[in-house]
Amino acid sequence: MNFRNFPMVPRVIFGRGSFDQLEEIITSKRVDTSAPFIFLVDDIFENTDLEKRIPLNYNDKIIFVSAGTEPKTSQVDTLRDQITNEFDRLPSGVIGIGGGTLMDLAKAVAIMLTNPGSAVDYQGWDLVKVPALYHVGVPTISGTGAEVSRTTVLTGPEKKLGINSDYTPFDQVVLDPDLCAGVPLNQWFYTGMDCYIHCIESLTGTYLNAFSQSYGEKSLELCNEVFLNGVLPEETSRDKLMMASWHGGMSIAYSQVGVAHAMSYGLSYLLGTRHGVGNCIVFNHLEEFYPEGVKQFKKMVDRHGVEIPQGLCADLTDTEFDTMIRVSLGMAPLWENAIGKNWKQVITPKKLREMYEKM
Ligand code: NAD
Ligand code: ZN
């Protein structure tokens, strides 16, 4: 048995208003006054109070990025080129402010500023050879666990696959639940359900171990408090969901996700369906695999009056179904975690087609 020895985020600050300590945190990491900090910021924050609170000094730069589409390898290369063309030396660090999209972009750009070639070359496991630039994650919506994970999920010309490496995790994370205050209900639910689904897939998977279970159970308990039981004050709910996301991410670090993720990758690749909502669309039809998890999920949907899109696959062609099935079947570790070593006997292309047709 070969046990995985993986890195964790070495520094984290938690608390409402902790964002205002960012300046103090990064100052000691500044190489010198001509090596800027690059802030990659969700463009939803352009001209807001948060923009004014970003601690710019010397030639530091904010680059606003839309989270309207999920991160692409070409987008990472372009951002890297933009930075290297504008500055004649390496920046002091990259700071991502936003949801999973901005977390992943910041991680990937930090890697590509020190490694040659294109982000495409590093999609996979342990292909990054040179440590990334110092990078900081500041999440503004909770659920993906991208703030703790060892991957950055990118869509390339041929595949949607993460850069999984020891250099991917952030050097520093700032967890300020107040930054999540403006998230719209549907998005709050979809991204929050990503966390809930991480827990269910991890806790019911064949890869489960005490490490993953301890984080997964805590995360699930927090998700239930936020989405299912009781009525929490909004601020408490934000605190708890932020920690649920963290623990959910830690839980899958040492296990794996499962059926919902494997199938939602197919939807995302073909139709551009976003991660959170895509997982919800798929999970809604997975009673066969996760009976209790799906039952509770449906209660949460009803409780919050959220709409889960239906009929996405109604008009797809055979070729399009085949593409989704190919992408989904490519996620072997996810299927093995969900079903076991003999998963190929259960999850055939025909079976996947029948499942996709319901969605
Ligand atoms: P997101 O970053 O895609 O953002 C979703 C929407 O919420 C966007 O419109 C964004 O502008 C908006 N938003 C974010 N913060 C807001 C705020 N405070 N107020 C108002 N609106 C706000 O959302 P996400 O669901 O966090 O991330 C999805 C991405 O994360 C996908 O690209 C997925 O592949 C990736 N992901 C990565 C990992 C990982 O481990 N690296 C894990 C899961 C998902
Ligand atoms: Zn996920």
Descriptive notes:
Residues 11-177 form the Alcohol dehydrogenase iron-type/glycerol dehydrogenase GldA domain. The chain is of the alpha/beta class and 359 residues long. The chain has two domains: 12-180, Rossmann fold (3-Layer(aba) Sandwich); 185-357, Dehydroquinate synthase-like - alpha domain (Dehydroquinate synthase-like, alpha domain, Up-down Bundle), CATH 1.20.1090. Helix content is 46%, strand content 11%. It has helices at 22-27, 49-53, 73-86, 100-112, 185-203, 210-228, 234-253, 259-271, 275-283, 291-304, 318-329, 332-339, 343-346, 349-357, and strands at 12-14, 37-42, 61-65, 93-98, 124-125, 135-139, 153-155, 160-164, 172-175. It has a six-stranded parallel sheet with strand order 1-9-6-4-2-3, covered by helices on one side. A three-stranded mixed sheet has the order 5-8-7. Helix 2 (49-53) links the parallel strand 2 and strand 3 (61-65). The protein starts with 11 loop residues before the first strand and ends with a helix. The model has no long low-confidence stretch (mean pLDDT 96). Residues 144, 194, 198, 261, 275, 279 line the site of zinc ion.
CATH homologous superfamily title of the largest domain: Dehydroquinate synthase-like - alpha domain
Report the portion of residues in β strands.
5-15%
Number of extended strands: 9
Mean pLDDT: 96
Helix content: 40-55%
Strand arrangement within the widest β-sheet reads 1-9-6-4-2-3
Query: In the CATH classification, which architecture of the largest domain applies?
Result: Up-down Bundle
Give me the strand/helix succession.
Answer: EHEHEHEHEEEEEHHHHHHHHHH
Oligomer status: single chain
Shape: globular
| Overall radius of gyration | 20 Å
Helices, by number, come to: 14
Q: Outline the biggest β-sheet.
A: 6 strands, parallel
